[in-house]
Amino acid sequence: MAGKFVVFDGPDGSGKSTQFARFSSYCTEQNLALCEVREPGSTNIGEQIRSVLLDPANTDMTLRSEMLLYMASRAQLVEQIIRPALERNELVLADRFVSSTLAYQGTAGGLDHDEILSAAKVAIGNTCPDLTVVFDVDEKTAATRLAGKSKHSKHDHPMQPTLFSDRVELRGSVYQKRVRQGYLDQAKDQPSKYIVLDATEDPDAVFNDLINQLKQHFG
Ligand code: TMP
């Protein structure tokens, strides 16, 4: 997987960040040079944009402004971190990418997918993921997990703390259901670029499934 660009993605409460941390340790054990990033954020500029995006006080943010802020953070990330890491032949592992914008601001929010993809082209050029892994979870399981999450566990993210019950998470289960559908639709449209894992299972089973599927995909 050296020199590949892999994205872990999925609805809030999918357990994606837990699997991200486990996979990161696994890569270290395998002596694989890994560059980990998360979105929005991972750069100085990106983390400032993240604070604006997730601040529950920003109730007046328009959907287009929101989409473009995600893209601005992404543009900074690609140029500053992702492209140089790929040039060094590292495995780049991203917690969310364009697939999130398509699911959240597109399928769930109502923005046209072609418009999102046009903005993405400006932000990332040709730096597209080789594979996007979707951690699929139904909205009921996801809501139960999120409700059980303490402020401290939210801060266990491998890289940076995040705001508890952020602006996006506060949108409710109808929105989250559409988000899930957004991921499933993307995977259906591009089966060679996506794998979908059942993330309702226990973390050990999900991790085994993940490793098996990655081995199958990358050979
Ligand atoms: P996180 O909780 O995985 O760190 O993600 C932060 C939130 O931002 C999450 O609720 C999903 C949302 N998000 C979007 O709505 N669009 C995007 O393009 C990205 C990257 C994240």
Low-confidence stretches: 150-164
Distance between the termini: 9 Å
Ligand identities: thymidine-5'-phosphate
CATH level 4 superfamily: P-loop containing nucleotide triphosphate hydrolases
Question: Can you count the beta strands?
Answer: 5
Helix content: 40-55%
Structural description of this entry:
By secondary structure, the chain is an alpha/beta fold. The protein has helices spanning 16-29, 44-54, 63-87, 98-108, 113-124, 139-148, 151-154, 173-189, 203-218, and strands spanning 5-9, 34-38, 91-95, 131-136, 194-198. The protein has one domain (5-218): 3-Layer(aba) Sandwich (Rossmann fold), CATH 3.40.50.300. Helix content is 55%, strand content 12%. The chain is globular and about 45 Å long. The protein starts with a strand and ends with a helix. The site of thymidine-5'-phosphate has 13 residues, from helix 4.
Please specify the SSE layout and strand pairing.
Blueprint: E1 5-9, H1 16-29, E2 34-38, H2 44-54, H3 63-87, E3 91-95, H4 98-108, H5 113-124, E4 131-136, H6 139-148, H7 151-154, H8 173-189, E5 194-198, H9 203-218
Parallel strand pairs: 1-3, 1-4, 2-3, 4-5
Helix pairs in contact: 1-9, 2-3, 3-5, 4-5, 4-8
Bound molecules: thymidine-5'-phosphate (TMP).
Residues 12, 39-40, 70, 96, 100-101, 104-105, 162, 166, 168-169 line the site of thymidine-5'-phosphate (TMP).
